[in-house]
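How a chain folds remains the central question behind the approach discussed here. For one protein, we set the task of working out the structure tokens from the amino acid sequence alone. The sequence in question and its structure tokens are set out directly beneath this paragraph.

_____
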Amino acid sequence: MIRPRARLITAITAATAALALTLTGCATGGSSSEDRPLRIWSGSMTPINNNFSPFAVDTATHLTYGAIYEPLFFFNQLSADDPVGLIGESYSFNEDGTELTITLKPELKWSDGEDLTAEDVAFTFGYGSNIDPDMVSIDAPDDTTVVLTYNKPKFTSVALILGSTWIVPEHIWSSIDDYMAETNPDPVGSGPYMLKTFTEAAYTLEANPLFRDGEPAVKEVQDVGIDSNQSSEDLLKTGKLDWVGQFIANPDTVTGDGRIETMNNQQDPTVIVTCANADLGCTGPQTDPAVRQAINLVIDRATIREKAFAGLAGEASPAFALLPRDEQWVSDESLAISPQDPDIAEAQAILEEAGYTKGSDGFYAKDGTTLELDLFSPDGWTDYNDAAKLISEQAEEAGIRIDARTVSDAEYWTPVTNGDFQLALYGLTQSLVADPYSNYSQYFATDATANVGEAPVKGQNYSRYSNPVIDEAVEAAGATQDAAIKKDAYASIQAEIARDLPYIPVVLNASQAFYNVKDFTGWPSESDLYAAPLPYLSTASAIVLANLKPVTD
């Protein structure tokens, strides 16, 4: 999953003002929606990276994932229904879960007209970061069949294998040796759209006439770069944007005239990600579990939800399960929801037991060093910025000094990815299915992390957390379809992560989508949540785009 980055609220910049001038033809009352692109903001800031590589998870454009390149199946986060076949038609495991047979849809084409066959899928699973160390063999016995064989059961990994592996054409990528350096400016995919034009201010996709389900009804989609959530809101209000996913404290100001509708599906936890593991190179007091436990206890989450998130956020879970969707997997009720009110006395008791003493300045110290931590968030993400300030103030009451600061977009992602940080406010993405397995394998398992100075390749364990109990339980859960065995494994995981807190839950973030129902129809609704209506989500955004139709006069 691509992480959401669209939470910015700052003053209108010169670049955005210039962009607004280029969008005047999109205003309500202008040209028909049939004659213009559907304009979205997926969270990209200017200058937009000219990168359409499906392997560049943190730097590729958002619409790379789904609109251009596709996985085999679409797993709807908002539904317990079976996955929807995209490139894939069906799949099945052998009895012990070590052999996965995938049947593809027939007569598929790449956007350049070449045939898309099982050979492409087999190549993809054996290429670059897709290579699974548990893989024994990859076979394509005919044009529409792929057989993946592993040395251990993969039942629970199926959503990651089939829903998060971006299938690429062998005839192009087989000649690319350094896949991490490749920016892929002329992408060839299987999705409903293909690249038409690119600038640093915006890129435009056009309908793929060879798309298996027929050319999409919306012929062009333009994804613009905007450096300000307030600017996006202004453009949305004036009819110059059609679809955004962002935090707006007072959504009624946008939806009042009926042209724009909104939906808020709270699903992604906002956390304090800590560089937790000194053995992998993390430095600072946050590597002490007692410090992380104390911070967790001083947070006044109820106040943060109201003041920083305008009451639109939900209650986060230390089990990192999406409730009530995943309630069957949470054995300990005390781990369902993080404490909403602070417990300063207990936080101080934990610190003192760990050898910290409060000085005359009111702050705790150990071995003569004051307990002081750095917490950063991206400049202009005002919900995050306000939350960080509140956390700093709340920690100070308990004698913990947390210095909250803001940084540029680049200054945010680089240290988080490389591990050169202490604390950062961060948004995790929720599991694709009603099962938290992918959360545990992607964010907490040892093989999903890397030494400080290196970016994780297989997962997104940016905390550098490593715990053999977690690793064993993740492996056990992934090897079975037995719900009781999985629940026991998850209970072990939840107990460990709730104690160690490499990610300290803050809130279940408001995931607000705003979309133009006057000019375009087919959006997800409360009665038909066929996909999450957020333009920055991989695959789901493409499912929505392929379902939309312009309103004709």
